[in-house]
Amino acid sequence: MLIGTWNINSIKMRKDHVERFLQDKSIDLLALQETKVKTEEFPGFNFKKLGYEIYHQGGKGRNGVAILSRIKAERIIKGFEGLEEEENFPDVKERIVGIKINLENIDELWVFSVYIPNGNPVNSEYYFYKLQFLWKFREFLEKNFTKESLLIIMGDFNVAPEEIDVYEPEILKESICFTERERKSFFAFLEFGLIDTLRMKYPNKKGIFTWWDYQFSAFKKNQGMRLDHILITNPLKEKLKNIWVEKGPRGWEKPSDHAPVLAEFDL
DNA sequence: ATGACTGGAGTTTCCAGA
């Protein structure tokens, strides 16, 4: 099974890219972020034609998460569903969507598409909202699952966890997505029982990024950050065959500023 | 020359993204 995650920075602008990518790679399930359309306004017709079910939660002009899946969902979960204090996170339903699917050899696999708040500027109210959001997300997982559940949680976390995940740690150390507090919050989130698949496979490999600034010819110079992650629980560890960043679409005409991340599972 | 950002809202310019 081939799955992936991609922050597309507007589905209206990137519809053709997504279609092309799904077909080129023959993807079974793709998580999208920043669709930037209302829930009911997702342009789903073409994806349905290609054989995908669409599970989308959006907001007008911003945020928005979706899952395009060849396998039909048994259940859908949105935001911090069932959690008290969900109202303290008013945009969470535009940031988290999950589906439960059953496969031939596996029951109850949960897959999530998530878009963690950006948090800029550092130390602003929004920055602390981001940190709290990560903490609350872990609480949400603890309420609904255990570390033995079959979970794939993927999306744009807006955190580069380690120094090797940014092009120049010295320059970026006080910048959004790479501050000490964000990185600590990310690792605290992982402590629920999640594995960062890319680092599991390539613990020391440098220069692997998923986002490059539109400015400064950043992509050409490979000056990026690794902000998009595919996280899994322990029972899925042996099922993971490979994980990689598809840089191709970042070089297409009028690209998203993120590249997709793909993972192949023995499922 | 050492090098030009993008999308959305909404109305001409601002905000958010990372």
- Quote the CATH topology: Deoxyribonuclease I, Chain A
Helix content: 10-25%
Count every beta strand, where a strand is a DSSP E run of 2 or more residues.
14
Radius of gyration: 17 Å
What class do helices, strands and sheet pairing give? alpha+beta
Walk me through this protein's architecture:
With 267 residues, the chain is an alpha+beta fold. The protein is 22% helix and 28% strand. It has one domain (2-265): Deoxyribonuclease I, Chain A, CATH 3.60.10.10. It has helices spanning 11-25, 45-49, 125-144, 169-172, 180-190, 197-201; strands at 2-7, 29-33, 53-59, 62-69, 75-78, 96-101, 109-115, 150-156, 194-196, 211-212, 224-225, 228-233, 240-245, 261-265. The strands form three sheets. It has a six-stranded mixed beta sheet with strand order 3-4-2-1-14-13. Helix 3 (125-144) packs parallel to helix 5. The longest helix is centred in the middle third of the chain and has 20 residues, at 125-144. The chain is globular, with a radius of gyration of 17 Å. The termini are close together. It binds one DNA strand of 18 nucleotides through residues 9-10, 12-13, 34, 36, 60-62, 118-120, 158, 175-178, 211, 213-218, 225, 227, 254, 256-257.
Entry summary:
With 267 residues, the chain is α+β, with helices and mostly antiparallel strands.
What is the strand and helix layout of this fold?
Blueprint: E1 2-7, H1 11-25, E2 29-33, H2 45-49, E3 53-59, E4 62-69, E5 75-78, E6 96-101, E7 109-115, H3 125-144, E8 150-156, H4 169-172, H5 180-190, E9 194-196, H6 197-201, E10 211-212, E11 224-225, E12 228-233, E13 240-245, E14 261-265
Parallel strand pairs: 1-2, 7-8
Antiparallel strand pairs: 1-14, 2-4, 3-4, 5-6, 6-7, 8-12, 9-12, 10-11, 13-14
Helix pairs in contact: 3-5
The chain binds one DNA strand of 18 nucleotides through loops.
